[in-house]
Amino acid sequence: MAAAIKALNAKIRSNKYTDYICSTHFWGPVSNFGIPIAAIADMSKDPEIISGRMTGALTLYSGTFMRYALAVSPANYLLFGCHAINFTSQLVQGYRYINYFHMGGKEAKLQSVGQGVADKASEVKHKVEAAVGK
C-alpha cells in the first residue's frame, strides 16, 4: 500500500500543473479568498455595521501578506492577488467607515430619512383630505 501511495505521489509531482494544484502555494490562497469575498459582499451593506478596528487590522494583515507573497521563493502571485483584493476592499470599507462616523454621513442619512418621513406624511395627509372631501 505504501508503495502505491509513493508511486501515485511521484506521478502527481512529475506534472508541474498537478504538482502546483497539490501544493500549499495553491490551497493557501484559495482557502484565504473567503476574506476578500466577504469584504466585497459587505460593501453593499449599511456602513453602520462596519468595525473600524477590524477593518484597520485586516488592512494591515493584507498589506503584510502582500509583501510576504512576493518575498517567498518562488513568489506566490495567487496569494498576492488574494491579499491585494482584500487590501483594496478593506480600504474602501475604511473610507465608508470614516465617511459615515466622522465626516457627517450618519447625520446626512438621518436627515434624508427624516425628510422622507415628512414627505410621506404630507402625501398621506393630501390623500386623506382628498378622500374626506376638504
UniProtKB/TrEMBL annotation:
Keyword DNA-binding: no
Presence of keyword Mitochondrion: yes
Keywords, in A-Z order: Membrane, Mitochondrion, Mitochondrion inner membrane, Transmembrane, Transmembrane helix, Transport
GO molecular function, one term: pyruvate transmembrane transporter activity
Annotated InterPro entries: MPC (IPR005336)
GO terms (BP aspect): pyruvate import into mitochondria
Cellular-component GO terms for this entry: mitochondrial pyruvate carrier complex; peroxisome
Coiled-coil regions listed in the entry: none
Principal subcellular localization: mitochondrion
Family: Belongs to the mitochondrial pyruvate carrier (MPC) (TC 2.A.105) family.
Function comment: Mediates the uptake of pyruvate into mitochondria.
Official protein name in the record: Mitochondrial pyruvate carrier
Species, as recorded: Epicoccum nigrum
